[in-house]
Amino acid sequence: VDVRRLLEDPSIDALVVAAPNHWHGPATMLACAAGKHVYVEKPCSHNPEEGEMMIAAARASERCVQVGTQRRSN
Fold first, then answer.
1. Residues 39-48: contacts with CB under 8 Å, at least 24 apart
2. Which of 36, 53, 62, 69 has minimal Cβ neighbours within 10 Å of its Cβ?
3. How far apart are CA 28 and CA 71, in angstroms?
4. What pLDDT does residue 21 have?
5. Given a cut of 70, is residue 74 above it in pLDDT?
6. pTM of the entire structure?
7. What is the pLDDT of residues 12-39, one digit of tens each?
8. Full DSSP string of 30-61
9. 23-48 burial string, b = 16+ CB within 10 Å, else e?
10. Residue 8 burial (CB < 10 Å; 0-12/13-18/19+)?
């Protein structure tokens, strides 16, 4: 399934990114650009530069982006 089809659906408000790690950043940025809120599993990005791009996308679109780190406390 192509995630872009989900992003085109106006009835979807948020995206949970649980894809392979190298897709976390691109999917988050695409979702922000489409006006969706995002919950992304760790690692949030493939490298620091991609993380900065994700922050910029969230700020520019005024979307909420949360990174799940729930297993860090185990």
1. 39/14, 39/15, 39/65, 39/66, 39/68, 40/16, 40/65, 40/66, 40/67, 40/68, 41/17, 41/67, 41/68, 42/67, 42/68, 42/69, 42/71, 46/21, 46/22
2. 62
3. 21
4. 85
5. no
6. 0.87
7. 999 999 888 889 999 999 999 999 999 9
8. HHHHTT-EEEEESS--SSHHHHHHHHHHHHHH
9. ebbbbbbbbbebebbbbbbeebbeee
10. exposed
DSSP class of residue 71 equals G
> What are the structure tokens assigned to 9, written together?
């659906």
Q: Tell me the one-letter amino acid at 71.
A: R
